[in-house]
Design goal:
By secondary structure, this protein is of the alpha/beta class. The chain folds into two domains: 198 residues, Spore Coat Polysaccharide Biosynthesis Protein SpsA, Chain A (Alpha-Beta Complex), CATH 3.90.550.10; 92 residues, no CATH class. Helix content is 51%, strand content 17%. The protein contains eleven helices and nine strands. Strands 1, 2, 3, 4, 5, 6, 7, 8 and 9 form a nine-stranded mixed beta sheet that branches. α1 links the parallel β1 and β2. α8 packs across α11.
Length: 325
């Protein structure tokens, strides 16, 4: 496999997590490129000490994770033009050794598949409720998929054909890339195999809130780009954000002011939604009510993200990364 697979790792101030990430793919040296986004810790020196190629992004240019991934990919194929597969990894993840071999074998046996991903699991799911929420988020259906996440194994020639990630997206760049790959006739698959261990390290509500705002922004931007048939990309997610996070609070406020007794109807609908979501996710056991609560509260943050995107488009404001760490 030496020379067949290359890795692109992106990160900023990941500390020990970045070292763990490098150690998990050290067998593939020197085919590893690390893209650093103005870290103030020892990330760059640690990468260089481990003989990892480093790209330091020019932060005077608008930063996005998509831009970082593209910069790493371009460096990788410039250094090693014969690399056939690229594995994109976030710097806060540890790659499962067995996963890489399984992913490679699957792609070699299925030439119509251009992207494979596996199960991303939280490394410390019990450290906070927010880590646990991320762990649930990563648990997506197995089989043919529409999209992958930040960790994914791809064919280099296909990534080249679609000109890589969309540099302008502040989030959701991976699903958008997968849309363009599928439009070429290739498939995306999620395998039932542990791929990476991720450390969300989210311990405060404010971090989770900002992350959820970013998700709402990504839904809005994604639906604007690919919301038409046949994709309907993130149309449902955007609609739910507007209804539950935008319309319902506004309806409650107006009713509370002009017809107070009817405002209870809105609250009743929210309670019914809470009960419905708790039942729908009952497989989570005692965590189901808490999960339902965050799904409902999250819609307010998503609506703010949607509004932020509309505001930026209407007033031609340049979007900036919504950071939560």
């Amino acid at each position: 496999m030496t020379g067949t697979i290359g890795f692109v790792v992106i990160g900023r101030n990941e500390g020990e997590r970045l070292i763990d990430c490098f150690n998990s793919v050290a067998n593939y040296l020197p085919f590893i490129v690390y893209v650093d986004s103005a870290s103030t810790d020892s990330s760059v020196s640690e990468a260089l000490a481990m003989q990892v190629h480093v790209v330091e992004l020019d932060m005077t240019v608008k930063f996005t994770a998509a831009r970082a991934r593209n910069a790493g990919f371009e460096k990788l194929i410039a250094l090693y033009p014969d690399v056939q597969y690229v594995h994109f990894v976030d710097g806060d993840c540890i790659v499962n050794q067995d996963w890489v071999i399984n992913a490679l074998n699957f792609l070699e046996m299925h030439p119509q598949v251009a992207v494979v991903c596996g199960r991303r699991k939280e490394r410390f799911p019990t450290n906070s409720v927010y880590n646990q929420l991320c762990d649930i988020e990563w648990n997506t259906p197995i089989g043919k998929a529409k999209a992958c996440g930040g960790d994914a194994f791809m064919r280099v020639d296909v990534v080249k054909q679609v000109n890589g990630f969309n540099n302008t997206l502040i989030a959701g760049e991976e699903p958008e890339l997968c849309i363009r790959i599928r439009q070429l006739g290739y498939d995306v698959w999620r395998l039932d195999h542990v791929m990476t261990l991720h450390d969300a390290a989210i311990f405060r509500f404010s971090q989770w809130w900002k992350r959820t705002i970013r998700a709402g922004y990504a839904y809005a931007e994604g639906s604007h780009l690919h919301g038409a048939a046949p994709e309907y990309h993130w149309v449902k997610e955007s609609r739910r954000a507007w209804i539950w996070g935008g319309f319902m609070p506004l309806a409650w406020l107006l009713l509370f002011v002009f017809a107070p007794i009817w405002s209870w109807l809105v609250l009743l609908l929210i309670v019914v939604q809470f009960l419905r979501l708790s039942w729908q996710h009952r497989a989570l056991g005692s965590f189901a009510p808490k999960y339902a609560y965050f799904l409902i509260v999250g819609k307010f943050a998503e609506a703010l993200g949607q509004f932020k995107y509309v505001w930026h488009r209407f007033f031609n404001v340049k979007s900036t990364l919504i950071e939560y760490k």
